[in-house]
């Protein structure tokens, strides 16, 4: 489907803080809202955004209508509907679905909204920000009265920390997730994180203290081997093996060059986080 552009493309984007995205056009914003309706909140109804619509998108009449909605204490659903009415972007049925979802979102608790943001950020590969959202959600809820939900949040935090190689911290959250809701999958994740953060002797002692069954221990080992096989296929792993081969062949200059390329690759990956 081809959408007709409304207004100008902004020279300077409007930054959606909840998603960490820069928006340059009304169509980009509408697409984002349609696909991630539960990520949208009342912070969109700001003077800064209305100024962006007026000055960057050059949509004066739309900015006037948005201002009127804010001044008359209109809701987020009214505000978003006004944006969609400006462009022929969705059908009336789709717009009704979006506004209903916004009404539901308005009734969500704060920790539920942070959880949704965390899921979105994790899906986008923004692991560090996702962990922060999950952690905020966890702080805003009572773990004892909502153990299953708290356990899932702890597990999500553990997964995020493990992806960033903070295995010891990840293990702490897997431990808490398991305490709240004992589950074999969580115990396996805990064992994996502990093995990657402890010495061999410390890991065996840890398993003995927890009285880990042989079956669960074997599943954890299988999980690690599978993960290692995936890592071996990574570009940086191949580059490291190339550097090792160069060193073994006495090519110290070539080894240094390849390792510098690996470090630059890791730096770029870190910046994206």
Description:
This protein is mostly helical. The protein has 3 domains: 14-106, no CATH class; 110-231, Serine Threonine Protein Phosphatase 5, Tetratricopeptide repeat (Alpha Horseshoe); 235-272, no CATH class. 71% of the residues lie in helices and 2% in strands. It has 14 helices and 2 strands. It has helices at residues 26-35, 47-56, 60-71, 76-86, 92-106, 110-123, 127-139, 147-163, 167-180, 184-195, 200-210, 214-232, 235-248, 252-272; strands spanning 14-16, 21-23. A two-stranded antiparallel sheet has the order 1-2. Helix 3 (60-71) runs antiparallel to helix 4 (76-86), helix 7 runs antiparallel to helix 8 (147-163) and helix 8 packs antiparallel against helix 9. The radius of gyration is 24 Å and the shape is flat. The model has no long low-confidence stretch (mean pLDDT 85).
């Amino acid at each position: 489907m081809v959408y007709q552009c409304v207004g100008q493309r902004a020279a300077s984007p409007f930054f959606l803080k909840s998603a960490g995205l820069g928006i340059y056009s009304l169509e980009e914003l509408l697409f984002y809202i349609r696909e991630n309706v539960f990520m949208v909140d009342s912070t969109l109804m700001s003077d800064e955004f209305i100024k962006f619509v007026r000055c960057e998108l050059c949509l004066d009449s739309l900015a006037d209508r948005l201002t009127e909605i804010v001044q008359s204490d209109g809701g987020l659903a009214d505000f978003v509907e006004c944006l969609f009415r400006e462009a022929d972007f969705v059908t009336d049925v789709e717009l009704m679905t979006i506004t209903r979802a916004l009404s539901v979102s308005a009734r969500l608790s704060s920790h539920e909204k942070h959880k949704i943001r965390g899921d979105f950020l994790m899906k986008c590969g923004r692991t560090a920000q996702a962990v922060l959202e999950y952690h905020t959600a966890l702080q805003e809820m009572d773990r004892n009265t909502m153990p299953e939900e708290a356990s899932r949040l702890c597990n999500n935090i553990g997964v995020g920390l493990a992806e960033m190689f903070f295995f010891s911290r990840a293990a702490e959250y897997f431990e808490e997730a398991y305490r709240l809701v004992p589950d074999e999958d969580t115990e396996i994740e805990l064992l994996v994180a502990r093995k990657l953060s402890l010495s061999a002797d410390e890991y065996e002692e840890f398993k003995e203290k927890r009285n880990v069954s042989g079956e669960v221990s074997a599943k954890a080992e299988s999980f690690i081997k599978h993960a290692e096989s995936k890592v071996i296929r990574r570009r940086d792993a191949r580059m490291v093996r190339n550097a090792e081969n160069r060193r073994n062949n006495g090519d110290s200059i070539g080894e240094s060059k390849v390792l510098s390329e690996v470090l630059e690759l890791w730096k770029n990956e870190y910046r994206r986080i």
